[in-house]
Amino acid sequence: MRGLILGIILMGAGLIAAEVKTDAPRFTPDNQMIRPEGYRQWMFLSSGLGMSYQKDAGYNDDPVFTNVYIRPEAYRQFTAEGTFPEGTVLVLEIYSATREASINKQGHFQDRFIGIEASVKDSKRFPEKWAYFSFMGDDDKPLAQAEPFRKEACWKCHNQNAAVDNVFVQFYPILREAQEKKNTP
Prior knowledge:
The chain is of the alpha+beta class.
């Protein structure tokens, strides 16, 4: 019986250890990011509906939902120290919004999966420290790998408007709360 209990404890400890460490971001030799897998097991930060950084972007008529996930290690460091470590990855998952199905009479819910985008902090690989990627192909099929957006596309906006280190902490209540506790500028 004692051996069984010890085995269960060790097995449980192994499961906990496996949950603590997630895959680091992976790249091809020419700096294309390989599509993150298992991100739905990461820390969920928040959802948005119809968000746009441009006025009158047309999302009011056909909004999309976005779900944001962060690698657990990066979340833990940010909440403990107020900084994002090297290897931080955030995934933006995009779904269409609908309102007409089943018994729903009001409001929207997430419907069709559209694709994902990702940001990664890697100062050895990217001179600006952060790079941004879209894994959505022209034919609506997910890409296995993606090259970084040009600096002007995402980096500039994140650099000018993000609350902390190119991350829009202002849109994620749990990161915003951690930032306030740490008094991160």
